[in-house]
Design a protein that fits this description.
- The structure is a single chain.
- 26% of the residues lie in helices and 24% in strands.
- It has 490 residues and is α/β, with parallel strands linked by helices.
- The chain folds into three domains: 13-143, Nucleic acid-binding proteins (OB fold (Dihydrolipoamide Acetyltransferase, E2P)), CATH 2.40.50; 154-201 and 298-305 and 309-489, Vaccinia Virus protein VP39 (Rossmann fold), CATH 3.40.50.150; 214-293, no CATH class.
- Helix 8 links the parallel strand 15 and strand 16.
- 50% of the residues are buried.
């Protein structure tokens, strides 16, 4: 296994203090409920309601918080029932208000008072999301903002390792690496990361680590035109005075005191090449809007894309993932003439990473279902004579490639490197099954959801592919989100 992973004996950086064998056994018994906690995104019930099943919504209970769960919530028990509680930290005793009781296996609750605080608790980085506010009035989008930044990464490492343990039967404890400029004392940064851009750029030099990183912000619009984020697990718009996770330029451009009646949302975008953009999203114009071309710089290379299209949110993320993918590809297994693939390729960022690593004659096909993104990918990959961009659904493309390949093509498929960067839901059975049929030499998996990643890893393992290297990156500080890059081979 790669040296940037740690076995569970390295508990100091990987698990909260006091997480003993009994607590781990409890966590295994909570498997089904923990999975539900991550994927259930229904809005919270009204305080006076029952949560859909006669549960005591609105009741305050005292809880001992024992663990972290996927989805930015924490695990406690009340009279034997699992309770997923927000705004807490493992080891704390809190008073929490039940917000949902419609599931038979668990309840949800929000911390309203911290009775015994953790040593890792800090004043929330965003006052609009502080535990001092009523839960219904807390801005969403910074659910770890009350936790010391280094410990946030420890909790994210637990979520990754527990998901891999439960779903793929792998015992790995990855270090969650900070993005350049987000380092704090005590961070363990592998040598490969330390060799990168270990500095804060001029735009965020005066920001505390973990703040000032969002280059894209979507503000929701209430019926009266008020803009702001949604409250957590709600469609209620919260008016706010600041956006501490946004870059200084995006925060300055955000129209927090403006009104947008009739709009659904407002996007604020700050490209790395400058020139902030504010886009009101109006229902009648959404489908007819033409691309607004912007440029994003990664190292010495620039990428064109539609301002409304997908791009990495953290101002360092595109550079971090470019280097991570380049490092993950095993030289000995890479064949520049093989049928190399970049699946869910967007505008070609990771295909370009592979091309820059192995030269302009590298053959690689970027596959993406969004035609606008594919058009930009074709432009962005024009430097490589062997590069192509295809508009197609990934599951359809790989199924067809597996079913229709000639003998010569099968040989090129077996020699291939596949970069797999699926959406948050993961690649899934159909795509993994087709990739197993292609039998590529190596798969570099870029994941933004640890549970979906672990589920896919289990599918790959059933077909003989094992995780040979794994790194994790904190590209979403003060939230529960985390990025994983892994190499799988037979």
């Amino acid at each position: 296994m790669a040296t940037d992973n740690r076995r569970r004996s390295r508990a100091g950086r990987s698990r909260p203090a006091g997480r003993d064998t009994a607590a781990r056994a409890d966590a295994r018994r909570d498997t089904a409920a923990r999975a539900d906690a991550g994927r259930d995104t229904a809005p919270r019930a009204d305080a006076a309601g029952t949560g859909g099943s006669g549960g005591p919504v609105g009741t305050d209970i005292e809880l001992e918080v024992t663990n972290v769960a996927h989805g930015g919530v924490f695990v406690a028990r009340h009279e034997g029932r699992v309770v997923f509680v927000s705004d807490a930290i493992p080891g704390e005793r809190v008073r929490a208000r039940i917000s949902e009781a419609r599931h038979g296996s668990f309840w949800r609750a929000d911390t309203v008072e911290v009775l015994t605080p953790s040593e890792h608790r800090r004043p929330h980085v965003w006052s609009a999301a502080s535990v001092d506010r009523d839960p219904a009035d807390r801005a969403g989008g910074a659910e770890f903002g009350h936790i010391e930044l280094g410990y946030q990464r420890s909790l994210k490492a637990i979520v990754i390792s527990d998901a891999l343990d439960r779903m793929a039967k792998l015992e790995l404890a990855p270090i969650v690496e900070p993005a350049p400029g987000d380092e704090v004392p005590g961070d363990e940064v592998p040598a490969a990361a330390a060799a990168g851009e270990a500095h804060r750029d001029a735009a965020t030099a005066d920001q505390a680590p973990g703040l000032g990183w969002r280059t894209r912000v979507r503000l929701q619009v209430a019926e009266d035109g008020t803009v702001g984020p949604y409250a957590a697990r709600s469609h209620r718009v919260i008016a706010v005075d600041d956006l501490p996770l946004a870059t200084a330029a995006v925060a300055a451009a955000a129209p927090l005191r403006s009104s947008f009646p009739g709009a659904r949302s407002v996007d604020v975008i700050g490209p790395s090449t400058g020139g902030e953009i504010v886009f009101p999203n109006e229902p009648a114009r959404a489908s007819a809007s033409r691309p607004h071309i912007i440029r994003e710089r990664v190292g010495e290379r620039e990428f064109e894309l539609d301002a409304r299209g997908f791009w990495q949110v953290h101002h360092q993320a595109a550079s971090v993932l470019t280097r991570a993918v380049q490092d993950a590809v095993d030289d000995a297994s890479f064949d520049p003439a093989a049928a190399n693939l970049d699946l869910y390729g967007g505008v070609g960022l990771l295909a370009a990473a592979v091309g820059d690593r192995f030269g302009r004659t590298t053959k690689i096909t970027s596959v993406e279902s969004a035609a606008t993104a594919t058009d930009f990918a074709a432009r962005n990959l024009a430097d490589w004579v062997g590069a192509a961009a295809v508009t197609d659904r990934v599951e359809r493309y790989v199924a067809r490639a597996a079913a229709q390949a000639s003998g010569v093509e099968r040989g090129r498929q077996r020699a291939a490197t596949v970069v797999l960067d699926p959406p948050r839901s993961g690649a899934g059975k159909a795509v993994v099954g087709s990739l197993l049929a292609l039998e590529p030499a190596q798969i570099v998996y870029v994941a933004c959801d640890p549970v979906a990643f672990a589920r896919d890893v289990a599918l790959f393992a059933a077909g003989g592919y094992e995780v040979r290297a794994l790194r994790a990156f904190d590209l979403f500080p003060h939230t529960h989100h985390v990025e994983v890059v892994a190499r799988l081979t037979r």
